[in-house]
Amino acid sequence: MRYGLLNDSRKLDKEAWPLMVERYVALGYDKGVMQSAKDLPQPMLWPQLHVSEGEKTQACAAFNLEQQRPMIGFCPGAEFGPAKRWPHYHYAALAAKLIDAGYQVVLFGSAKDKDAGKEILAALSTEQQAWCRNLAGDTQLEQAVILLAACQGVVTNDSGLMHVAAALDRPLVATLWP
Prior knowledge:
alpha/beta, LPS_LOS_Heptosyltrfase, 5 strands, 5-stranded parallel sheet, elongated, RfaF, EC 2.4.99.24
């Protein structure tokens, strides 16, 4: 039976497939091969991104990011608007503490996240602003991936860049809102 583009319909057995990730992985196999989560190859692989040290150095230089302070990435945007975002003043307070402790903070996101970055910057002192860069809307995706790889850690809302940071195996704090 064919429904639009779907030509391999499957009935979900939640007991056989208790985890959502297992259900999605199973879709990559013929339905006759996978009867339950126990049939999946173990250990289950996860997405991984790798960036060379040379790429990190080049990207940091291209955006004039200082090598003398370790970087912490902030991803303050969220696809579904302010209701899904950790408030900018919390990001600003954390940025101030990190900068005072010797880090630099780099803000990532799309052009529509630029204002959230401006609000974070505006809440910092002039001295702290020197160590916080708002790159939201200024990078291509590949550049953002490379720069996130150069970060010592990432603080993020539930966003695409959160998943990128996870695939880069960066230490990660994700703020998830209702």
